[in-house]
UniProtKB/TrEMBL annotation:
Keywords: Carbohydrate metabolism, Cell wall biogenesis/degradation, Glycosidase, Hydrolase, Polysaccharide degradation
Keyword Cell wall biogenesis/degradation: yes
Glycosyl hydrolase family 81 C-terminal domain ranges (all copies): 386-719
Protein name according to UniProt: glucan endo-1,3-beta-D-glucosidase
Annotated PANTHER family: ENDO-1,3(4)-BETA-GLUCANASE 1, GLUCAN ENDO-1,3-BETA-D-GLUCOSIDASE 2
Signal peptide annotation: none
Organism from which the protein derives: Delitschia confertaspora ATCC 74209
Length: 766
């Protein structure tokens, strides 16, 4: 067994897989509240999508480049990429280009390590084509789901070639209908061996001029004979005319042993992918599995990523083969002969809630005595400053709401001073109501074309990219996560709020839009952002990208799952809460492999690991940068916010220490201006809470006055958090401060009584 594989030592007692799945419909049948109008003409028009007209169309999945505009950018199935060839010069190729990249294909940024980025060329090794494809060739797609798409290349009315595509597929499969197959190569053929008989038909061994070896399996449809291909010239390998059958192509880096694996699996491929998950009765462990509906009699070959291999269940781990293939940005994938990819997570964060939390202590409900003066002082200053909700950006408005929600939670659940708690909660409800009523400047609409909730201003041609591309489905998990977290705070402090007006339906609408848990929902796509194969979300929506989907902020990705979990708990939806817990567990694992690079990272090239944080992760590229700058505090900091309890779960101690030592130790952090300094010190609390506590304490007592807080950070919360993690101590303040707070509360009550008496007196005079 490889050292990289850590199979769970025990099998948790799981509930029945079919009866107790956590992927269930949400408890509302409302598409959107009455306040949200339906708009039919989204500015991005689906192209070539031939599916059920009422079915939601995924916007953030691996195949989105095929759904709109020119359809000319690749899709990445890992380890392969596929790109439609549309008669480009110099060879006038029509068909589907396929590619796989080895380590020697990596293109690094200039400079000494650690380099800013690494990427891969957009070249193809082979093109799956047919003589019948010509100038009028077009791409159409059917059978779309969160995990699968069927692409069709057509020249007239009948598909000439169909391509079932899904992540991790062991072969690139092409299904021909009454066509003359032509397997072209821009790399040129050096040698072709075959036909060689195999149990499903014949195979050919193709050696290209770049020294790579590819295998091609030819399986005739019923009523058709074995197809004999001939090498027409060094670039064209042509089959018989008017032939129907399946051609499967795979790259073989593993010699005879690898070829034996491919022989064993040839002829089989998936036509559908379904996900399921169950938890233990206490919710602390879960098993999730991707199930593949297979065509063919041979075992199904599937490639698993490193984070899958860490957590495979015992049965699936026995399906491992010797075959390994490099992916673009996810390290080495391992071939499995299986029609089910099943993983177990044994450390779900069930105790993680609103309170400070650490891996060793769990939820920390006690505030150290020495923290009371500073926390109460900050609370008195921040409670009156409620957000206005007047920002045009839903993203920045959401951040301000979540910031104030953390203050409200402390006032209501920690300090419990009745007047301050009630006033702050009512202030938050008042601002939140503006959004439920859709009164904000950038109102929301339900898009009936793709089926989702988007900002209305993006329907204007000049403003399609407003608010980070929200109307094009960019970053919805980041945007809506702040609103869902805020709603969870309100509902926890006042459960009756759920029954007021459209509050409940409005929040459920946001959840459905970014994290729908029902695979058959006709109103929103399943799991728009979170990719259950990759183990994290993709932020990019309806934007063409040669490098595929990308994500810039792992922390906001994790925060969206955290918000989902808390909202599920607040409304009593245990399946939603379990989905949030499971997503966090998977994210915590995948982030360690792909985004957070400790010194022993084995996924990324050594020339890149020294950056510590991947920055923007694409499917084809890893870039140590952000969309707004390259400063270290930007690149690291965007993966640290918002500064709330879930960070202690997804950001492991060793990584935080290595990243801090690389960029911010030895007082370098104090050279950083603005709110990023506060973000970095909040992150430092995970490994050095005393230093973080002292920093924020100086902010309370006048050495600085908020200029080092990021706009989503609350001083009250940061003091409570850093103190609870170990920054403050029990001490002599206990009696004095508790008594001081009692006096403060008594005075507020007295002032309220006096105001009430004065009001009555004025009324009597009138």
């Amino acid at each position: 067994m490889d050292s990289c594989m850590r199979i769970p030592l025990f099998a948790p007692k799981l509930r029945n897989t079919e009866e107790d799945t956590i992927f269930t419909p949400m408890a509302t049948s409302v598409v959107a509240p009455a306040e949200i109008p339906q708009f039919p003409n989204h500015p991005i028009v689906p192209k070539g999508v031939i599916d059920e007209p009422k079915k939601p169309i995924q916007t953030n999945k691996f195949y989105a480049n095929w759904l709109f505009a020119e359809q000319t950018s690749p899709i990445y199935t890992h380890p392969y990429s596929l790109v439609v060839q549309q008669g480009w010069q110099p060879a006038l190729n029509w068909g589907m280009g396929i590619s796989h990249m080895d380590a020697n294909d990596i293109m690094f940024a200039e400079g000494t390590p650690p380099v800013q980025f690494y990427t891969h060329p957009l070249t193809t090794s082979l093109i799956i084509s047919a003589r019948e494809l010509a100038d009028h060739t077009r791409l159409e797609t059917t059978n779309l789901s969160a995990f699968f798409i069927l692409g069709h290349l057509k020249s007239q009315t009948t598909p000439v070639i169909s391509f079932p595509c899904y992540q991790g597929m062991g072969f690139v499969t092409a299904i021909y209908t009454n066509a003359t197959a032509n397997i072209q190569s821009k790399k040129l053929y050096r040698q072709v061996e075959g036909p060689i008989a195999v149990n499903v038909g014949v195979k050919y061994r193709l050696t290209l001029e770049d020294d790579t070896v590819w295998l091609m399996y030819v399986v005739p449809s019923k009523g058709y004979g074995a197809a004999v291909f001939h090498l027409e010239d060094s670039g064209n390998f042509v089959g018989p005319p008017y032939w129907s059958g399946t051609v499967q192509i795979a790259k073989n880096p593993s010699g005879a042993d690898g070829e034996a694996v491919y022989d064993k699996a040839a002829g089989s491929h998936a036509t559908k992918v379904h996900i399921n998950a169950v938890t233990t009765t206490d919710g602390r462990a879960a098993k999730y599995l991707l199930s593949y509906t297979i065509v063919g009699t041979n075992p199904h070959l599937l490639f698993a990523l490193p984070h899958h291999m860490d957590s495979l269940d015992f049965h699936t781990s026995g399906k491992k083969t010797c075959l390994k293939m490099r992916t673009r940005t996810k390290g080495m994938a391992t071939g499995l002969l299986t029609d089910t990819l099943a993983m177990i997570e044994t450390d779900l964060p069930v105790t993680l809630g609103f309170a400070p939390w650490s891996p060793g202590k769990g939820e920390i409900l006690h505030m150290p005595d020495d923290a009371w003066p500073a926390v109460l002082y900050a609370l008195q200053r921040e409670i009156p400053i409620a957000p206005t909700g007047k920002l045009e950006s839903m993203y920045y408005t959401g951040k301000s709401l979540a910031k104030y929600a953390s203050i409200v939670w402390i006032a209501n659940e920690v300090v419990k001073e009745p007047i301050g708690a009630l006033q702050s909660l009512n202030s938050l409800k008042t601002v939140y109501l503006k959004f439920v009523k859709n009164w904000q400047a950038n109102s929301l609409v339900y898009d009936t074309r793709w089926k989702g909730v988007v900002e209305s201003l993006g329907y204007r041609a000049a403003q399609q990219d407003i608010d980070f591309g929200n109307t094009k489905y960019n970053d919805h998990h980041s945007h809506w996560g702040y609103f869902v977290y805020t709603a969870a705070v309100i509902a926890t402090c006042d459960p009756n709020w759920l029954r007021d007006g459209s509050n409940y339906e409005w929040v459920q609408m946001l959840v459905k839009d970014f994290a729908n848990g029902w695979q058959e929902d006709p109103t929103y796509p399943f799991s728009r952002h979170f990719d259950w194969y990759h183990g994290h979300s993709w932020a990019k929506g309806l934007y063409h990208s040669d490098d595929g989907k990308d994500q810039e902020s792992t922390s906001e990705d994790g925060f969206a799952s955290y918000a989902l979990k808390l909202w599920g708990r607040a409304i009593g939806d245990s399946n939603m809460e379990s989905r949030g817990n499971l997503m966090l567990a998977i994210q915590a694992r995948s982030f360690q492999h792909y985004f957070y690079m400790q010194n022993n990272n084995s996924v990324h090239p050594s020339q890149f690991i020294g950056n510590k944080i991947a920055g923007i992760m694409f499917e084809n590229k890893a870039d140590h940068t952000t969309y707004f700058g390259q400063d270290a505090e930007f690149v690291s900091g965007i993966h640290m916010l918002p500064s709330l309890p879930y960070l202690a779960y997804i950001r492991k101690h060793q990584f935080v220490k290595e990243e801090w030592d690389t960029y911010f130790s030895n007082n370098r952090v104090n050279n950083i201006r603005g709110g990023w300094r506060g973000v970095l010190y909040a992150n430092l609390a995970l490994i050095d809470p005393k230093a973080a506590w002292q920093f924020f304490l100086t902010g309370v007592y006048g050495e600085w006055h908020g200029e080092y807080l990021e706009d989503g950070q609350s001083m009250t919360w940061l003091l409570l958090w850093t103190a609870a993690l170990g920054g403050a101590q029990e001490g002599f303040w206990r009696h004095l401060e508790r008594r001081a707070w009692e006096i403060f509360a008594e005075r507020r009550i007295e002032r309220a009584r006096i105001k009430a008496d004065l009001k009555k007196e004025r009324e009597l005079r009138l």
